[in-house]
Design goal:
The complex is a heterodimer of chains A (468) and B (257). Chain A is an all-alpha fold and 468 residues long. Chain A is built from 16 helices and two strands. Chain A has a two-stranded antiparallel sheet. Classes of the chains: A mainly alpha (468), B alpha/beta (257).
């Protein structure tokens, strides 16, 4: 029996451990996740150095990867997959799988596009404010219903989820094709498009981005304080103060660092010019500099320069949505009954049922939630593309599942976290866009992504075996 | 005579034409331990699952305190104060002790979120009574030892003031020390007036822990005897031969020996 008084938050004796172990014990940081973050940072540095060797750029290590522009784009590109991944984690934790998300995304996106372009537009007049509201609500509702339908077949008719959603993968793709006879449906409603983050209205700008970042930091500190208070009230072992401070510092640094990056990415030069002329913003005089991101007047001509009128993007709408969804899903998974039941079912379905949990209803709800998130991703993807096609979500199911698995979700069920899966999505997208920067052929990218998936799971298993 | 706490009357349940439980009647009084014995497949676990809500009986009645009740799922049973400790130690392996204790009955904060801290506090209290050495409140159940898991399972059953406790081979996976702990606990719960159904293979422990023993064979009830009026051999004969002590021939008695 342990009788020492100095303990980590988990109540274990930390005195005999070496300093590194003691640090992780005391802060209760997930070493697995830290390892993943580390691996991702290594990948980033490699891409930056490598791309810099091909063509020097303004990145942190002289390449094109660690630039605000690339990182901003990376976040935007990740968001559609990231949103779906948060739901896939819960599906997989519950020992189920959803292979239909990619086809469902195409189907819902085409449905939403047909609705606004062929029906609502002509009926209400293009640009009518009701269009985007109806279209988005219809996408979310359609996704939820289709997901609930999948869940019903799985939970009540007891058809394995692999089969139900494999059928969905094939069938929903067919529906997506039929809805628009295989045509590309475009363009999207002006307001609808904001969600894609491709237009200035979809960018938060530096002021609000920083406000949000600082609020998030305050939130982190408050959460740590309230957690400590709670544990103190019941007389539980507490983390050392230095560990709490370290956690707050790490969290805040991550938030502020991200904010710094996204607020350093200027609007495209052409958009600054358009915006300035449209809104009669005075453009200062300056000297032309083709490498600058700002605009100046050189005589009566608008030119690029280093020191002139400039706007920065800040957080893009899809990234904000993915972050909010990530936060909400983490809350759902860890702080609510519903989340607890999902994990319990994944850990031991029979035990969950014997404990009085309505496992069938939970299954339907999880698949409905997955469908809702697919609907949201369909909105993001079609808004970003400014069009919907029946190929929009192609192979997305594979990326979504891969992201969840790279992020530490066990296909055996019961284990997985939302933030891990988000990191998995970001890692996978990093590899893909990194290789695009290096101009590697698409076939090669596929090979690398597939290999990384397998290696990631292998390393994860080694890790788990070691800590057992 | 006092009203029985539980009466299972003429319970039958069949799976695919095979009668797993065939017209069985058993009762249980407050402060009493009734052992259920029989070979594997004799139907004792199946019978008890009708009471715990895991199975739905095909026919028969269940009476609690003399009133007929409907038990269609585990929630119904729990609402009536019937708690079950399953043989397979029905714990969710991936969540911690407190989460398992409160599975399906979580304590919520006033905002409707899980109150993990309050649950851990209660868990520490109840586990402190049952198994004072237990410290691993933050670890998933799969990393606990057999005895620790069993104490979590028992704690879960008594945490919600059960009136009727069903224990399915509670000591099967335990060492001698932990087995004694369970025996002490059964005596304590009995003293508090709970009724306990104890499913067990071991005639010796049934004789020690139970007031009466109900023996089943091939889905049917062989008989119910008071354990201090019969010998272990008598009970064994009921299990093996399916005959009550008064039906035994001298030859039967020899066969059992």
């Amino acid at each position: 029996m342990v009788t020492t008084t100095e303990r980590g938050g988990s109540g274990q004796d930390i005195r005999r451990d070496n300093p590194i172990k003691a640090f992780f014990r005391a802060t209760e940081l997930d070493t697995r996740i830290l390892g993943m973050v580390g691996a991702m940072l290594v990948i980033w540095v490699i891409f930056d150095v490598w791309s810099g060797m091909l063509r020097p750029n303004e990145g942190l290590f002289g390449g094109a990867f660690l630039t605000p522009r690339n990182l901003w784009t990376l976040l935007v590109q990740t968001s559609s997959i990231a949103v779906m991944t948060t739901g896939m984690v819960l599906v997989i934790v519950m020992r189920e799988i959803d292979l239909s998300v990619g086809s469902m995304l195409s189907m819902v996106a085409v449905f939403g596009a047909v609705l606004q372009v062929y029906h609502l537009g002509p009926a209400l007049g293009v640009g009518h404010p009701a269009i985007w509201i109806i279209a988005m609500a219809a996408c979310l509702l359609a996704g939820t219903l289709v997901g609930a339908f999948n869940g019903y077949l799985i939970a009540f008719l007891q058809i394995p989820s692999f089969i139900v959603t494999l059928g969905g993968l094939i069938a929903y793709k067919g529906v997506a094709f039929l809805l628009a006879s295989g045509e590309t449906v475009a363009p999207m409603d002006k307001t609808f498009k904001i969600v894609g983050g491709g237009v200035p209205e979809g960018w938060l700008g530096p002021f609000w981005s920083w406000t949000l970042g600082i609020l998030a930091c305050i939130g982190i500190v408050l959460a740590l304080i309230s957690g400590r208070k709670q544990r103190k009230k019941f007389g539980f072992p507490l983390r050392p103060i230095w560990a709490e401070v370290t956690l707050a510092a790490i969290g805040s640094a991550a938030v502020l660092g991200t904010t710094r990056v996204v607020t350093s990415y200027p609007w495209p030069f052409k958009l600054i010019e358009q915006y300035a002329t449209a809104n009669n913003v005075p453009i200062p005089q300056g000297v032309e500099d083709k490498s600058g991101a700002a605009i100046c007047m050189a005589g009566d001509q608008i030119v690029r320069c280093t020191d002139g009128l400039i706007y920065y993007t800040g957080y893009a709408a899809p990234v904000l949505i993915a972050l909010i969804v990530g936060g909400a899903m983490t809350f759902l998974a860890s702080r609510t009954r519903f989340g607890r039941y999902i994990y319990a079912i994944g850990g031991n379905p029979e035990a969950a049922q014997l404990a009085g949990i309505n496992t069938r209803l939970v299954t339907v709800k999880v698949f409905a939630l997955m469908g809702f998130l697919v609907g949201l991703s369909a909105i993001i993807a079609s808004a970003r593309l400014d069009a919907a096609t029946n190929a929009l979500g192609q192979s997305n199911e594979l990326y979504v599942i891969a992201a969840a698995v790279i992020g530490g979700t066990s296909l055996a069920g019961g284990v997985g976290t939302v933030y891990g899966a988000l990191l998995g999505a970001l890692t996978m997208q990093s590899i893909q866009s990194g290789m695009q920067l290096l101009n590697l052929p698409a076939a090669f990218q596929d090979i690398v992504v597939g290999t990384v998936l397998v290696i990631a799971v292998f390393v994860d298993q080694l890790y788990r075996r070691r800590i057992k | 005579m006092a009203t029985p706490l539980v009466e299972l009357r003429n319970i039958s349940i069949a799976f695919g034409g095979i009668k797993a439980v065939d017209n069985v009647t058993v009762d249980l009084y407050p402060g009493e331990v009734v052992g259920l014995l029989g070979h594997n497949g004799a139907g004792k676990s199946t019978l008890i699952k009708c009471l715990s809500g895991a199975y739905r009986r095909d026919s028969g009645q269940i009476l609690i305190n003399g009133e007929e009740v409907q038990i269609n799922n585990p929630r119904d049973a729990k609402a009536l104060g019937i708690e079950t400790i399953y043989q397979a130690l029905a714990l969710a392996d991936n969540v911690d002790a407190a989460a398992n204790l409160y599975l399906g009955r979580e304590i919520l904060t006033r905002w409707g979120t899980l109150d993990d801290v309050a649950m851990e506090a209660e868990a520490r209290k109840v586990m402190g009574r049952l198994n004072p050495n237990f410290r691993r409140f933050k670890e998933p159940a799969k990393s606990l030892s057999g005895g620790q898991r069993q104490s979590v399972a028992i704690a879960r059953a008594i945490l919600f003031n059960a009136r009727i406790l069903i224990m399915d081979e509670p000591t099967a996976a335990l060492g001698p020390h932990e087995t004694q702990m369970v025996a002490d606990l059964i005596h304590e719960l009995k003293r508090q007036g709970l009724g306990i159904f104890l499913i067990d293979h071991d005639v010796h422990s049934v004789k020690k822990l139970c007031d009466r023993a109900a023996v089943m064979k091939n889905g049917q009830l062989v008989g119910i005897v008071k354990v201090d009026e019969v010998t272990e051999d008598d009970i064994l004969a009921m299990i093996i031969l399916g005959k009550r002590p008064d039906q035994l021939t001298p030859k039967d008695k020899e066969a059992v020996h």
